[in-house]
Write the structure tokens for this entry.
Amino acid sequence: MRETDDCTGILINSSDFISNVAHELRTPVAVLRGSLEALCDGVIYEKEQVEQYHRQMLSESIYLQRLVTDLLELSRLNSSSFEIIREPVNLSDVVCDVCRSISRIAVQKNIAIIRESDNSVYIVNGDYARLRQMLIVILDNAVKFTPEGGTVTVNQHKDSGKYKITVSDTGCGIAEDEIENIFCRFHRLMSDANRNGSGLGLPIAREIALRHDASIDVKSRIGKGTSFIFTFSSEMSREDIL
């Protein structure tokens, strides 16, 4: 049984995918088992150590939950039977909604979320919830990889009849040879900020964009930051809206 890889378009064995999943599961499962064995055998008994082990187990459980959720989500999106609920959606509403949600996370790192828009109506035929999910992934990553006191800017504009949404951060940046791989399943940038990532967020965001006939371009400079540019190839006519 074979399937298409999310980032390269090359056919890969399903066994390779299963191997990747097993690799991602191995470490958290081993940590959970080791911690439980230490607690059950009484090797760890001091209150402070017990609390530390409990926190570690909770952290690994949260990671496993996120991984399973993302796997199910990606599986649904990749299924030919999955349908996007299409209706007139104002991208400005989606951007505003996402910025408001992410700002609650950003404030914890003293990161400013800056929205640049002419407040125009940008109507596309799409799924509000899925478009919101797509942008949440990108903004969440932007905040994650931006150091304390930095900024994340969301710019919305129209260019040659196409709608564009650009999310730019002042984070660590991505090496040029890494950019082509970031949309691959389970590919994660090696950093402390990303130690709990599932490696499936960007593939999910890319799949949602493709389902909305949108492209994603990435520009980045090490130490300067990264920009994700979404370009929606079509807009709805007044007749479609009415």
Notes: Helices lie at 14-40, 47-78, 91-106, 128-144, 176-179, 201-211, 238-241. Residues 2-78 form a domain with the Helix Hairpins fold (CATH 1.10.287.130).
